[in-house]
Each structure stands twice: as structure tokens, then as C-alpha cells.
Amino acid sequence: NEILAHLSGKMRMYRISIMPGDKVKLEMTPYDTTKGRITYRVKEGQTTT
């Protein structure tokens, strides 16, 4: 599935950059599963829960 996501407010405020290939955490809306918000960029070597 393909998801269109934008940066959350704090990521935009602190200018955290996302590059292609980065692993991120998403918040998805229950109403439209093709849209979401990037809330966290996972650093290399770090696992998500």
C-alpha cells in the first residue's frame, strides 16, 4: 500500500529532515488509510515497538 504522509508539527518546528529510505513512525487516520502523519524518525540501529 502507498501512504501519503506529512511531517508533524514538532518535526517541522525542529527541522528534522527525512530522507528517502529512512524508517519512520506514522500516525494514520482511521477514515482514510492512504494518508498519515510522520511523528518520529527511527535512528539507525534502533528498533521500534
TrEMBL record:
Keywords: Initiation factor, Protein biosynthesis. The keyword Protease does not apply. One of its GO terms (cellular component) is cytosol. It comes from the Bacteria. GO terms for molecular function: ribosome binding; RNA binding; translation initiation factor activity. Residues 1-43 form the S1-like domain. It holds the Pfam family eIF-1a. Belongs to the IF-1 family. This is Translation initiation factor IF-1. It comes from Candidatus Collierbacteria bacterium CG10_big_fil_rev_8_21_14_0_10_44_9.
